[in-house]
Amino acid sequence: MDIFLRAATSDDVPEIVAMLADDPLGATRESPDDLAPYEAAFARFSADPHQRLLVAEENGRVVGTLQLAILFGLSRRGASRALIEAVRVRTDRRGAGIGGWLIRQAVEEARREGCALVQLTSDASRTDAHRFYERLGFEATHVGYKLTL
To answer: Does the keyword Transferase apply (predicted)?
Structure first.
Protein backbone atom coordinates (compact mmCIF):
# COMPACT_ATOMS: atom_id res chain seq x y z
CA MET A 1 0.00 0.00 0.00
CA ASP A 2 1.25 3.47 -0.89
CA ILE A 3 -0.48 5.07 2.08
CA PHE A 4 0.44 7.41 4.89
CA LEU A 5 -1.15 8.93 7.96
CA ARG A 6 -1.40 12.67 8.47
CA ALA A 7 -3.37 15.25 10.40
CA ALA A 8 -6.48 16.36 8.57
CA THR A 9 -6.65 19.89 7.23
CA SER A 10 -9.68 22.07 6.65
CA ASP A 11 -9.45 21.14 2.96
CA ASP A 12 -10.17 17.52 3.94
CA VAL A 13 -13.47 18.31 5.66
CA PRO A 14 -15.71 17.70 2.60
CA GLU A 15 -14.16 14.28 1.94
CA ILE A 16 -14.36 13.30 5.60
CA VAL A 17 -18.00 14.35 5.85
CA ALA A 18 -18.77 12.39 2.68
CA MET A 19 -17.27 9.27 4.30
CA LEU A 20 -19.24 9.87 7.51
CA ALA A 21 -22.46 10.13 5.50
CA ASP A 22 -21.75 7.09 3.33
CA ASP A 23 -23.21 4.36 5.51
CA PRO A 24 -26.67 3.46 6.85
CA LEU A 25 -26.26 5.29 10.16
CA GLY A 26 -24.39 8.27 8.79
CA ALA A 27 -26.92 8.77 6.03
CA THR A 28 -29.53 9.58 8.67
CA ARG A 29 -27.46 12.02 10.72
CA GLU A 30 -24.97 13.76 8.43
CA SER A 31 -25.60 16.65 6.00
CA PRO A 32 -22.77 16.83 3.46
CA ASP A 33 -24.59 19.59 1.56
CA ASP A 34 -24.12 22.01 4.48
CA LEU A 35 -20.47 22.02 5.54
CA ALA A 36 -20.68 25.07 7.84
CA PRO A 37 -21.24 23.11 11.09
CA TYR A 38 -18.44 20.68 10.19
CA GLU A 39 -16.03 23.50 9.41
CA ALA A 40 -16.84 25.17 12.74
CA ALA A 41 -16.32 21.86 14.55
CA PHE A 42 -13.02 21.36 12.74
CA ALA A 43 -11.83 24.80 13.90
CA ARG A 44 -12.64 23.93 17.54
CA PHE A 45 -11.15 20.49 17.18
CA SER A 46 -7.89 21.58 15.59
CA ALA A 47 -7.28 24.13 18.38
CA ASP A 48 -7.13 21.34 21.00
CA PRO A 49 -3.72 19.60 21.14
CA HIS A 50 -5.30 16.51 22.71
CA GLN A 51 -7.68 15.96 19.79
CA ARG A 52 -6.52 14.63 16.45
CA LEU A 53 -8.46 14.16 13.29
CA LEU A 54 -6.31 11.85 11.21
CA VAL A 55 -6.61 10.78 7.61
CA ALA A 56 -5.13 7.95 5.60
CA GLU A 57 -3.95 9.25 2.26
CA GLU A 58 -3.33 6.97 -0.68
CA ASN A 59 -2.00 8.31 -3.98
CA GLY A 60 -3.07 11.84 -3.07
CA ARG A 61 -6.62 10.84 -2.03
CA VAL A 62 -8.12 10.66 1.44
CA VAL A 63 -9.24 7.05 1.81
CA GLY A 64 -9.85 6.79 5.56
CA THR A 65 -10.24 8.81 8.72
CA LEU A 66 -10.57 8.58 12.46
CA GLN A 67 -10.62 10.82 15.49
CA LEU A 68 -8.09 10.18 18.26
CA ALA A 69 -8.59 11.92 21.59
CA ILE A 70 -6.18 11.74 24.52
CA LEU A 71 -8.06 11.71 27.82
CA PHE A 72 -6.47 12.33 31.19
CA GLY A 73 -7.84 10.97 34.43
CA LEU A 74 -7.14 9.83 37.94
CA SER A 75 -8.15 6.18 37.56
CA ARG A 76 -5.51 3.55 36.81
CA ARG A 77 -3.01 5.54 38.87
CA GLY A 78 -3.47 8.69 36.83
CA ALA A 79 -3.11 6.99 33.48
CA SER A 80 -4.11 8.64 30.25
CA ARG A 81 -6.12 6.78 27.65
CA ALA A 82 -6.82 7.22 23.98
CA LEU A 83 -10.31 7.24 22.55
CA ILE A 84 -10.82 6.31 18.90
CA GLU A 85 -14.02 7.55 17.25
CA ALA A 86 -15.55 8.08 13.81
CA VAL A 87 -13.54 5.44 11.96
CA ARG A 88 -14.38 5.41 8.27
CA VAL A 89 -12.85 4.05 5.07
CA ARG A 90 -14.02 5.07 1.62
CA THR A 91 -16.53 2.58 0.28
CA ASP A 92 -14.44 1.84 -2.80
CA ARG A 93 -11.37 1.03 -0.65
CA ARG A 94 -13.00 -1.17 2.00
CA GLY A 95 -11.54 -4.64 2.25
CA ALA A 96 -8.07 -3.45 1.23
CA GLY A 97 -6.63 -3.44 4.77
CA ILE A 98 -6.81 0.33 5.19
CA GLY A 99 -9.07 0.21 8.27
CA GLY A 100 -6.76 -2.16 10.13
CA TRP A 101 -3.73 -0.12 9.14
CA LEU A 102 -5.45 3.07 10.30
CA ILE A 103 -6.36 1.59 13.71
CA ARG A 104 -2.83 0.22 14.21
CA GLN A 105 -1.41 3.66 13.41
CA ALA A 106 -3.74 5.27 15.97
CA VAL A 107 -2.72 2.69 18.59
CA GLU A 108 0.94 3.47 17.96
CA GLU A 109 0.20 7.19 18.28
CA ALA A 110 -1.49 6.49 21.64
CA ARG A 111 1.52 4.46 22.74
CA ARG A 112 3.86 7.36 21.84
CA GLU A 113 1.63 9.64 23.95
CA GLY A 114 2.10 7.31 26.93
CA CYS A 115 -1.50 6.11 27.07
CA ALA A 116 -2.22 3.07 29.23
CA LEU A 117 -5.06 1.87 27.03
CA VAL A 118 -7.02 2.56 23.88
CA GLN A 119 -10.79 2.43 23.87
CA LEU A 120 -13.42 2.92 21.24
CA THR A 121 -17.14 2.74 20.83
CA SER A 122 -19.12 1.22 18.03
CA ASP A 123 -22.86 1.38 17.45
CA ALA A 124 -24.55 -1.80 18.65
CA SER A 125 -25.93 -2.42 15.14
CA ARG A 126 -22.47 -2.56 13.53
CA THR A 127 -21.79 -6.27 13.97
CA ASP A 128 -19.24 -6.38 11.13
CA ALA A 129 -17.31 -3.55 12.79
CA HIS A 130 -17.35 -5.44 16.08
CA ARG A 131 -15.74 -8.48 14.45
CA PHE A 132 -13.19 -6.17 12.80
CA TYR A 133 -12.19 -4.60 16.13
CA GLU A 134 -11.98 -7.98 17.83
CA ARG A 135 -9.65 -9.23 15.06
CA LEU A 136 -7.42 -6.25 15.90
CA GLY A 137 -7.26 -7.32 19.56
CA PHE A 138 -9.95 -5.12 21.09
CA GLU A 139 -12.25 -6.73 23.66
CA ALA A 140 -15.87 -5.83 24.37
CA THR A 141 -15.38 -5.31 28.12
CA HIS A 142 -17.91 -2.57 28.88
CA VAL A 143 -21.46 -1.57 28.12
CA GLY A 144 -21.79 1.95 26.76
CA TYR A 145 -24.65 4.40 27.13
CA LYS A 146 -25.52 7.63 25.40
CA LEU A 147 -27.94 10.41 26.19
CA THR A 148 -28.93 12.54 23.20
CA LEU A 149 -29.11 16.23 24.13
So the answer is: yes
